[in-house]
Amino acid sequence: MPNTVSKILDIVRQSLNFVGDQIKERTRLGNDGRFHTTPEYPEFVWKEIIINAIAHRDYSIKGTDIQIKMFDDHITVESPGTLPGIVRLSNIRTVHFSRNPKIARFLQEYDYVKEFGEGVDRMFKEMEGAGLPAPEYSDNAFMLNATIQNNNADGEINGEINGEINGEINFDKNELLVYNAIAANPTATRSDLIEILDISARTIDRAIKSLKDKSAIERIGSKKTGYWSIITK
What we know:
Blueprint: H1 2-22, E1 25-29, E2 35-39, H2 43-56, E3 67-70, E4 74-80, H3 101-109, H4 119-129, E5 136-140, E6 143-149, H5 173-184, H6 190-197, H7 201-213, E7 217-220, E8 227-230
Antiparallel strand pairs: 1-2, 3-4, 4-6, 5-6, 7-8
């Protein structure tokens, strides 16, 4: 059993790490004049559909595996097996049944399962709170598919804004981080920005140079004692 536990935990970690690296970010200019960056899917939701697949798949079915399929506008996780026990598509938010209770239990012990029996309902609530479509489940023969959709209709993906900000300026993710930090901390030094953003000095320097070239920020005062300021137009 220890080897099985270790193998399943490795699968969980590797899957979550890989998908987490692929999740895109959306950046919007808020009413407060600052940029707000959020992931295209709530973190709890995309993690939950993966963990649920691992916890509840039918391990007696051979010849196929759990598959995570990522597209521009949705993620689908396919898991061998139909809905377990008395769970149906019509009651999936309120009825809980563990096909593999031992696996579910140690995933909870390792803090991967947060709320026994409440995860699916929370997924629906978090998607609604993010203004996204409800999760979709479908039973196809011996496979259960869980799908979540993003809101990729307006083209604001990967931390870029494909519109006009301060004229014709488009910012990438790191430029937006630095721009936001300067706007929120007008007298922040280079060292302050490194600490605030927790990114490398080299990344900070590249972003500052790019923002300066785009006439988004300007230097006030000397190189040693001055600071960067947002240019408003």
